[in-house]
Amino acid sequence: MRIHFTADDLTRVSLAGEPDPLWEVLLSRFRLRDRVRPAAFTPWLAELRAHPERNARIKAGARFLDVLAPPAPYFPDFLTPREAGGGLADGLEAILRTPKGRLADELCLLAARHPLPGWVRPLAEGDVTTLTALCDGLRTYYEAAIAPCESLVRSSLAAERACRSASLLDAGVEGLLTGMSPLMSWKPPVLEVAYVVDKELRLDGRGLRLVPSYFCQRVPVSLADPRLEPVLIYPIEHRHRWSSATAGCRDLAALMGRNRSAVLSALDHCTTTTQLARRLQISPAAASRHTMVLREAGLIDTRRAGPAVLHSLTPLGTALLEGRTAGT
């Protein structure tokens, strides 16, 4: 995605100070649907597994999200209103007040991409009962899936914001945007963003709101409708997730799982997938799966050397093994 700035836009870049609860609800549902669960979210997933009653409460909201926000490039913008930046209650109230025409338009776009069940029709018509049920489901989902880990989410985002704010103070808005690499590449006056589809976004003096997200993974997310207030939800740096997670846990196996912690510990020097499999007495396929997850978590680097694939620890991976991520 290419985001086009004017001079006015550079004076209207903002960085959200609080997590956006509805974006976190939506993106956390994506994480629960991941075929291979990212290692950085292991503490959150372990918390859910430890309380089966929470999983039961999640299901009501998940049923709505699985239909309205499927694993595809498009989902309706009305699910993540700007007002949610002020808190969950404000966001849900904004969903309830979504104009009927907008509901119909956005759900029509969704229906063109995916078959929708019959209950979506009254939602598209602005039926208050259906809208209320949707909001109740999202509220229950948040209370069961996000609220119990709210301190972890907030501390991670606070570390991210402190880092970005320092860049802003030291080098201005352009320094902030430059520091977003490799997620984004600032080539004035265009910000090129790794994205799921090819897209142009012209700010035209409206500015850009940057919203760090705990549950966003791999690439940033934005609104589908370019007429809405420009916003970019982006994944926080891995080190901020890990530093918050390790604050209350120094047992690596408990933090990220016995198998993955064993793989990480085995990479004390550059190792091929085959060597790693032999060393841990696991299949090459299993070794490859574990290294993929650890690479996406920012803990190892992978490079090809001829026919071999070599894995090595990143500074963050080394710090995690040595129990000093809080200081990275």
From TrEMBL:
Gene3D superfamilies: Winged helix-like DNA-binding domain superfamily/Winged helix DNA-binding domain. Transmembrane segments: none annotated. The keyword Cell inner membrane does not apply. Residues 250-325 form the HTH arsR-type domain. Keywords: DNA-binding, Transcription, Transcription regulation. Coiled coil: none annotated. SUPFAM superfamilies: Winged helix' DNA-binding domain. Signal peptide: none annotated. Pfam families: HTH_20. InterPro entries: ArsR-like_HTH, HTH_ArsR_DNA-bd_dom, Metal_resp_trans_reg, WH-like_DNA-bd_sf, WH_DNA-bd_sf. This is Winged helix-turn-helix domain-containing protein. It comes from Sphaerisporangium corydalis.
